[in-house]
Every structure is written in C-alpha cells, then in structure tokens.
Amino acid sequence: MTIVENNLPSLNDLTSHSKRRGFLFQSSEIYGGIGGCWDYGPLGVELKNNIKESWWKAMTLREDIEGIDASILMNPTVWEASGHVESFHDPMVDCKKCKSRFRADKVDLNKACPVCGEKNSYTEARNFNLMFKTQVGPMEDTSSIAYLRPETAQGIFVNFLNVQSTMRKKIPFGIAQIGKAFRNEITPGNFIFRLREFEQMEMQYFLKPGTQLEAFEEWKKIRLDWHKENGIRPEKLRYHVHEKLAHYADHAVDIEFEFPAGWDEMEGIHSRTDFDLRRHQEFSKKNLQYVDQLDNNNKYTAFVVETSVGLDRTILAVMCDAYRVENPGDKESERVVMRFKKKLAPIKAAILPLMKKPELEEIAMKLFKDVQLFCRAEYDTSGSIGKRYRRQDEIGTPYCITIDYDTLTDHAATVRDRDSMKQERISLDKLSLYLKDNLL
Ligand code: GAP
After folding, report:
1. Helix or strand (DSSP H, E) at 145
2. Contact 195, 186 (CB under 8 A)
3. What spacing in Å lies between the alpha carbon of 256 and ligand 1's midpoint?
4. Strand stretches in 216-374, DSSP E
5. CB 185 less than 6 A from any atom of ligand 1
6. What are the beta bridge partners of residue 427?
7. Is 276 near ligand 1, meaning CB less than 6 Å away?
8. How far apart are CA 430 and CA 313, in angstroms?
9. ∠ at Cα 400 (399, 402), nearest 5°?
10. Is there a contact between 411 and 428 (Cβ–Cβ < 8 Å)?
11. 349-353 vs 377-379, strand pairing mode
12. Distance, CA 314 to ligand 1 centroid (Å)?
C-alpha cells in the first residue's frame, strides 16, 4: 500500500470534499453565498463539537480553571477600554480602476492590480476598523451603537471578579470560553482560514505580577501538546515568536500549522501584562484589584497570560492533516481517507447489513441502537459493501461493522479498521465493549 503521507491536499480538493461529504457548505449558497461565512453540515458540526469537547475538557478538567459563556453584545465602552475602537484597524487600499479592495499589507503596491491588471492603480492606504457595528433597541442614534465582539476575551476580563468571588478562586487561576467572534475582514478567504464570523476558544490565566513569564512558557508547551494530541503531525506544527509586540504584551508566540497556502497562525499565546484589567478599571471606575490573602492581603491588578485558538482554523488544520489519498492512480485500490484521531471522528462506527434482508437488518438495527447509546454511529444499507467502506473512509469513520449471513449462525460480525483495513470477526455480545475500549 502506498500512502501519500507528506502531502497536504489543495484547498480546492478539501473544499469540494467537504461539500460532497457534508462537512461544510457555503453560507446561503442558493443566493450566491456571502463572503467570509460558511455553514457546518451534519459531519462538520460533529467534528466541531468533538474539537470543542477536547479543548473544553483540557481546559476545565483542572482545579484552577472555570468556564463561562458571555454574551456577544456588550456595553460599547468595553471596546473603548480594550483599545478596539481606537486601533483595531487594517490598512486598506482600493484599485482605482476596478474598485477591488485589498489589505495594504497583503498586496505588493508596486505591482499591477491582481484583479484587473491595471498598473499604479492603488489609492492611498487608509485605516479600516474591523468591528461590525449594529444598533441595540428601537432608536437609531449614537447612544444605541453596539458592536459584535471581535474577540471573546473581553467577556472574560469583565467577569474576572464575578468568577473569582463566586467560585472562591485564588490566583493563579483561569477562565475559559468558547464562542463566536466577528471581524469585518477586508479579504476573507482560503476556505475557513479567514472568516468574518468565526469561533474562538480562549483562556485567560490570571497571575501575580512577576510570575507571567513562567506561566507563559508553561502554556506554550501545554497548547502545542494539545494540537499533537488531536492527531496533528508534529512536523506540521511550529512556534513563531513575535518580535514586534503589541503595546500591552511583554511576550507573544503563535502556534503555526503548515496550511496548503503555507505556514500560518492557528493559535496565539500572549502575555498581556495587566493592561486589560487596568483599562477596565479606568473606564468602569470599578475596583478590579485582587486581594491576595496568601500574601498579607496585598492588593494588585492581576497579570494575564492568554491562549487564543481559532476553532475554525483548528478544524481546517485537522482536516488538512487527516486527508490522505492512498494508492493514487490505481483504479482498484485508490481511496481517499480522513485519518482523524478516533476521538475527533464525526461518526465512530458504521453498521452495515451485507444485504437488505429482514433477518440481517433486524440484527444490524439492534446493534446500531446499542452503539448509538454511547457514540455516534451510521446505519447504511445502500450500495456494494466496497462502496460503503470507501464512503466511510472518506468521512473518517474508524470502524465498519458488517452483519452477514454467517452472523445468523456464529453471532459475530466483521469489524474493519479504517487505517489498516484489517478485518476481524468479533462476537456481537462483545462488540460494544470492543468499541468502547478502542474509541473512548
Ligand atoms: N484575544 C486575542 C485574539 O483574539 P487574535 O490573534 O486576533 O487574538 C486569535 O486571534 C485566534 O483567532 C487566531 O490565532 C485565529 O486562529 C483566530 N482568528 C482570528 N481572526 C480570524 C478570522 N478572521 N477567521 C478565522 N479565525 C480567526
């Protein structure tokens, strides 16, 4: 068996595979779509939920981290305090001829417009705020302006004291959150890499001043390990240390993945000093200081190390890494297989009666119902068994279980492993245990 190990699929291959197999659809496709927005289909949402669960467990099954779910709309002063109103900009240029719009830092301003070919066609660069503005309530005046949050982090900062006091947390401790964020990106694209509506999984870890560097180093390692535990090949992951730091940060590193378009950011780990809590204190005029009972009731504004990973980018990386074409060009044996880590696979087992015969279907349906009690399974009766195996390979199902005529006498089924394609006969009464042992 020749396995094409090292190659990543092209984004086109992955986009069409995702659509064909029900992972992702263009948002509002029947109306021509809308830039920077995608819908997760039946298999995509399972994969997404499995990745969320993997992150949520990694973050909250610890004694020092609590979760929250803050609202998307917040008091607009939050975004003044955070600096987003003043400086969450990208520089933008337009082509004077075809009016196409580009991020000034992403096009070569000395070259012709990539859309219409016009030379020397760009306007002066001007700043474009990436926050979506909306109105809250029936009055459309300046007092009703609100923003769709461009990051989930601020919902955590403004709840720092609520969580600390209600959960009786002692520093160091963290707050974790998964939720939607919105950015009016000038040039969304590369499938689900750069979106206007996306999801973040963020954790803010609150620290005593002076301890942030140690925590930063610890979180760098924890977060890289998490990506590896999700099955991403280590050689496709690397750190990128920021040399130019944002004004509030004293250390920053990205975890990058080698996407089909090249190495790029999947997660940011930032040591944000006490900037955010200090600014919220200033703007809200509320005391957000922490009283350290373990240190003579010393009061201080907590420092923060943040880990911020894009859920959609993680899904893209997991899908790129899992997608393999095996034995390409060989009509008999070529197959596309999504080698998802088993815990992330959208469907864990497929139950396949060999023929549409009542005596086989009865056993298969009972097994399907048993398996569905503890993991997501699929029941499929249509097409040849070979075709059904291929379809399950393409969606990354770890196990196919075939009920055949021998089952009627030996009370066993054939279990086929997705990766090795090896088949073994397992007795029906041991199947659930077998799956639990191998999947969970
Ligand atoms: N609170 C810090 C923060 O938001 P960021 O580097 O701007 O930091 C964190 O974003 C992560 O969110 C990124 O590493 C990326 O995975 C994801 N992300 C940011 N903008 C995105 C977009 N337009 N589309 C998809 N994911 C995005």
Report:
1. strand 145-147
2. no
3. 12
4. 237-241, 251-259, 262-271, 290-292, 298-300, 303-310, 323-326, 335-338, 349-353
5. yes
6. 412
7. no
8. 38
9. 145
10. yes
11. parallel
12. 11
Q: Domains in the chain, please, with CATH?
A: 3-71+150-320 (3.30.930.10), 347-439 (3.40.50.800)
Strand bridging mode 323-326 / 303-310: unpaired
Alpha carbon of 201 to ligand 1 centroid (Å): 9
Distance 196 CA to ligand 1 centre (A): 11
Angstrom CA distances, 398 to 337, 339, 392, 438, stand at 10, 8, 8, 9
What pLDDT tens digit does each residue of the chain (440 aa) get? Answer: 444 555 688 999 999 999 999 999 999 999 999 999 999 999 999 999 999 999 999 999 999 999 999 999 999 999 999 999 999 999 999 999 999 989 898 889 999 999 999 998 899 999 999 999 999 988 877 778 999 999 999 999 999 999 999 999 999 999 999 999 999 999 999 999 999 999 999 999 999 999 999 999 999 999 999 999 999 999 999 999 999 998 889 999 999 999 999 999 999 999 999 999 999 999 999 999 999 999 999 999 999 999 999 999 999 999 999 999 999 889 888 999 999 999 999 999 999 999 999 999 999 999 999 999 999 999 999 999 999 999 999 999 999 999 999 999 999 999 999 999 999 999 999 999 999 999 97
Distance from residue 14's CA to the centre of ligand 1 (Å) = 22
CA 310 to ligand 1: nearest atom? 16
Q: Which amino acid is at 74?
A: M
Mutate to test the pocket of ligand 1, among 131, 198, 256, 257 (most ligand atoms within 8 A of CB): 198
Pairing of strands 399-403, 145-147: unpaired
Q: Which of 103, 183, 308, 316 to mutate to test the pocket of ligand 1 (most atoms within 8 A of CB)?
A: 308
pTM of the model: 0.95
Task: Locate the DSSP E strands across 169-213.
Answer: 173-182, 197-207
Closest CA to ligand 1's atom 2: 308
Which amino acid residue places its CA nearest to atom 12 of ligand 1? 310
Q: What SS3 class is residue 211?
A: coil
The reply to whether ligand 1 has any atom less than 6 angstroms from the CB of 380 is no
What separation in Å is there between the alpha carbon of 311 and the centre of ligand 1? 9
CA of 309 to the centre of ligand 1 (A): 7
Q: What are 359's two structure tokens? A: 């005596």
Residue indicated by tokens 């917040």: 74
